[in-house]
């Protein structure tokens, strides 16, 4: 089983603090995400700066695009992003329009999506999804459970590469043992740690311990 | 019947061209929208510049927020926005978190939302929705029809203030005659016109002709 990727989400409200944090962990992680909060605050400058710092790293612009997929995807692609995200309630034409303008599109799963919709994404050539515990749901006391793991496995069985995110820590990773998760995404689990580089190293070590090198 | 508002959406991919266009129409329209494309490109600078130009105008930051509602709403509020948008597949905790940080939140209707969900938004104190013809759906040949008007009327009957948008022109407005639409939103219908000020004036004149002053 290929080991899952480790992705750091930069969900800062300003570019300087995002840059400060990424310098500590950018070389350790597999994928760097320019988070929605950051891109809404700093615009395409955020993507451009991270690309300038990490010319060879996979970079995701987390636009959560709902409309005007072609324009949004083209803009972040020009700024240096490899991938962008679309929201699950976007229409198929929006998703397809985005997918035409950038290497890959990932569907962000929020709210009441269905497996029937998910099949339509696959049929449209979109094979990456991001399974969330919403940050606000986590604040409201929800957490990872069997219900989530079942959904993640079903999406994998359908043929998706599935990223998981939301309140993950090193202890949580073992819940996914035996599942070919594509990517674990964490933001403050790394960036808000006392020692972010150590936190990223610990995440990666635990991934390698469970899934192999 | 109170006349519907006219809202111009600035969906430019760069701030200078948005500023150029808004100077021609900002004093004519009721509401100025810093569109999603623009805010993803220029960040909170876009909101700050438009607020600086129009200190007394209602300004919407169209973030289409899907998560981290509190942070996103607080950030655009600090930049000068009166309202922001959330996507319909966001969770209720996300919507509530956003609504706590800014004067008002509008729910953007994309994809397969239900009236049961809409009732939950009302129950959460959110009473503005935006009914779309998706830009990409329009590109794919869809248009306004009886199906759309019925949905808009039902949302109004539920107690929402409903904005409508997507491929509107002066000719389209009369389709909504007799319906207390809250706001008509148009972007390129005004900004891409040969004479944007004249286009905005024509939109407003038609609104006043149909709904009164």
Automatic annotation (TrEMBL), chains A, B:
EC main group: lyase
Keyword Lyase: yes
Enzyme Commission code(s) on record: 4.1.2.43
CDD domains, per database record: KGPDC_HPS
Gene3D superfamilies: Aldolase class I
Domain called Orotidine 5'-phosphate decarboxylase: residue spans: 5-203
Keywords on record: Carbohydrate metabolism, Lyase, One-carbon metabolism
Any one Gene Ontology molecular-function term assigned to this protein's record: orotidine-5'-phosphate decarboxylase activity
Alphabetized InterPro entries for the sequence: Aldolase_TIM, HPS/KGPDC, OMPdeCOase_dom, RibuloseP-bd_barrel
Pathway assignment: One-carbon metabolism; formaldehyde assimilation via RuMP pathway; D-fructose 6-phosphate from D-ribulose 5-phosphate and formaldehyde: step 1/2
GO terms, biological process: 'de novo' pyrimidine nucleobase biosynthetic process; L-ascorbic acid catabolic process; one-carbon metabolic process
Catalytic reaction list: D-ribulose 5-phosphate + formaldehyde = D-arabino-hex-3-ulose 6-phosphate
A Pfam family recorded for this sequence: OMPdecase
Lyase in keyword set: yes
Family: Belongs to the HPS/KGPDC family. HPS subfamily.
Protein name: 3-hexulose-6-phosphate synthase
Organism of provenance: Pseudolactococcus hodotermopsidis
């Amino acid at each position: 089983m290929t080991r899952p990727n480790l992705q750091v989400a930069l969900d800062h409200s300003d570019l300087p603090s995002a840059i400060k944090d990424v310098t500590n962990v950018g070389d350790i992680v597999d994928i760097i995400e320019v988070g929605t909060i950051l891109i809404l605050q700093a615009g395409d400058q955020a993507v451009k700066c991270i690309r300038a710092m990490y010319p060879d790293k996979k970079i995701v612009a987390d636009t959560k695009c709902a409309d005007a997929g072609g324009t949004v995807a083209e803009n972040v692609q020009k700024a240096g992003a490899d991938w962008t995200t679309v929201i699950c309630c976007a229409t198929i034409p929006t998703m397809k329009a985005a997918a035409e303008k950038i290497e890959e599109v990932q569907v962000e799963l929020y709210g009441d999506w269905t497996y029937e919709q998910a099949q339509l994404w696959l049929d449209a050539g979109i094979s990456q999804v991001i399974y969330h515990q919403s940050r606000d749901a986590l604040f409201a006391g929800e957490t990872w459970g069997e219900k989530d793991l079942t959904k993640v496995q079903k999406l994998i069985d359908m043929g998706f590469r599935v990223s998981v995110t939301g309140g993950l820590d090193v202890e949580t990773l073992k819940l996914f043992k035996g599942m070919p998760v594509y990517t674990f995404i964490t933001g403050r689990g790394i960036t808000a740690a006392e020692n972010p580089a150590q936190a990223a190293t610990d995440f990666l070590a635990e991934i390698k311990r469970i899934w192999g090198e």
